[in-house]
Design brief:
Oligomer: single chain
Largest sheet: 10 strands, antiparallel
Order of helices and strands: HEHEEEEEEEEEEEH
Number of strands: 12
Radius of gyration: 36 Å
């Protein structure tokens, strides 16, 4: 039969493992693909030749972006970006090295900003006459330092740096979004709000006088007198005078800290006691 203190020790250990696992995983924002309209314009003769002698192409460009659900202003976060097939295509099937770049418009209650996400260079094979489908990649972006509330990211530009392996050839395919859609959002602390005002004035005056005289003779006599007046006036939302010590948020925080420490020590003591009993029963 399993003894109660063994169950207690096992339960505490299981709780510790579960709590550690919950802290190890941050919540992720739900991924929902969005589709934007894209126009890629080519002015370089080399690019025009690589794009099957086209000076521009237009079409739909899907994006699926995931990342943390919450963050703080000014912090760098990692996004997982999965772009669908681009309107740009290759005339021939060929192995290439490709480096993707996505430029976002970022909007929040704190204003607007431009964020750039650059993926790592990967090797892939493009199919002939098919849209260039870049594999899913990770990229870091830094949130604006003035971000407040929900920060919404909409793809603005999608650029592909392409290196043809054989024959050696390198060029860039620039594409701009002609329609925008929010592809990802992350929540930051909202702007502080205040709904009232407090005004008050405090004035105080203290006056006092002390006088005393001492005289001594053979028989000894002492006389003294002390007089004092004190006045204190306070005008505002709160009035009063007190001799008790005042408390504030720091006292509350200290009390909560002492309470938390006491609870933690009791928990550790319980685990040690359970372990000692297990060892004693084994030795017996």
């Amino acid at each position: 039969m399993v003894r109660p203190y063994k169950r207690t020790a096992g339960g505490l250990a299981a709780f510790a493992v579960m709590a550690g696992g919950m802290l190890a995983f941050a919540p992720q924002a739900a991924a929902a693909p969005v589709t934007t309209q894209v126009k890629c314009e080519f002015t370089d003769a080399l690019v025009i030749q690589a794009m099957d002698n086209k000076t521009s192409v237009s079409g739909a460009q899907p994006f699926t972006i995931t990342g943390p659900a919450d963050s703080t202003p000014g912090k760098s976060i990692q996004l997982a970006i999965d772009p669908g097939p681009s309107p740009a295509s290759s005339p021939l099937k060929a192995p290439i090295k490709i480096t993707p770049t996505v430029v976002f418009d970022a909007k929040s209650d704190g204003g607007t900003a431009t964020l750039t996400a650059v993926g790592a260079t990967t090797t892939m094979t493009v199919e002939a006459k098919a849209g260039i489908d870049v594999p899913k990649f990770n990229a870091n972006v830094q949130l604006p330092s003035n971000a407040k509330g929900k920060v919404e990211l909409s793809p603005k530009k999608f650029q592909l740096k392409i290196e043809v392996i054989e024959p050696p050839l390198e060029f860039t395919v620039p594409c701009n979004m002609t329609s925008t859609a929010v592809a990802y959002s992350v929540t930051t602390p909202a702007a502080a709000t205040s709904g009232g005002s407090t005004s008050g004035s405090t004035s105080g005056s203290t006056s006092g006088s002390t006088s005393g005289s001492t005289s001594g003779s053979t028989s000894g006599s002492t006389s003294g007198s002390t007089s004092g007046t004190t006045s204190d006036t306070t005008a505002g939302s709160t009035t009063g005078s007190g001799t008790l010590p005042k408390t504030g948020p720091l006292d509350d925080a200290l009390s909560m800290g002492l309470l938390g420490g006491t609870v933690g020590l009791l928990g550790v003591g319980g685990v040690l006691l359970a372990t000692r009993r297990v060892r004693s029963s084994r030795n017996a």
